[in-house]
């Protein structure tokens, strides 16, 4: 059972973004804040295929962290009016609650809309977070797990900036080397000399520690070919030398 009080509205919006990115959506973009109580919304596209045909669907996504009560038909009325103006193929409503039976019935009656309406409620979100354990850890894990998840998802080129940032916060000792890139003590792991080699999952794109550690000099002459690594989401892939990077 997830405690949605543990994250802020903004974090929930980011979590929705992460889930969409992991679920095959592309061109995911934030829309500006609209209305007085509405969160930041998203627009994204998804490739659909059926009977040999391929087409792109436009999805409009409203993410809202309702903690005390689920959205009522009157809340959703505003959402539908907003969606009408955007003319999407699908309206997806992501909420941290379970809609009441009445609200579901009310939504059923909205079937004459030119777009499909889908609801992703707390139950479905929890199921998805069971599949995407790294996203769950990023938002609901221990402090160390949240730090590691952040480090694992930032672009490699930003890793140095990130390391400097945690040094500034007094949480880590970071030493940079002229030729060896980043050396850091992050969450008690000292990346120095012999550093972990990271790979980017070939299925879901998550960067993760391959479990192999090496210093830069050994790496230059090492033969790394066809090594199987399993990402935190359980995808098993084969990696060659060019797939590895130093964190
Ligand atoms: Zn993966």
Please tell me about this protein's structure.
The protein has 247 residues and is an alpha+beta fold. It has 2 domains: 4-140, Trna Endonuclease, Chain: A, domain 1 (3-Layer(aba) Sandwich), CATH 3.40.1350.10; 157-246, no CATH class. Helices cover 33% and strands 30% of the residues. It has helices at residues 9-22, 73-86, 101-108, 122-131, 133-140, 143-153, 159-168, 216-221, and strands spanning 26-30, 41-50, 53-64, 90-95, 116-120, 174-177, 181-186, 189-191, 195-200, 207-214, 227-230, 236-239, 245-246. It has a 5-stranded mixed β-sheet with strand order 1-2-3-4-5. Strand 9 and strand 10 form a beta hairpin. Helix 5 crosses helix 6. The radius of gyration is 22 Å and the shape is elongated. Zinc ion is lined by residues 201, 203-204, 206, 231, 233, 235. Zinc ion (ZN) binds at residues 201, 203-204, 206, 231, 233, 235.
Task: Give the helix/strand layout.
Layout: H1 9-22, E1 26-30, E2 41-50, E3 53-64, H2 73-86, E4 90-95, H3 101-108, E5 116-120, H4 122-131, H5 133-140, H6 143-153, H7 159-168, E6 174-177, E7 181-186, E8 189-191, E9 195-200, E10 207-214, H8 216-221, E11 227-230, E12 236-239, E13 245-246
Parallel strand pairs: 3-4, 4-5
Antiparallel strand pairs: 1-2, 2-3, 6-7, 7-8, 9-10, 9-13, 11-12
Helix pairs in contact: 5-6
The structure holds zinc ion (ZN).
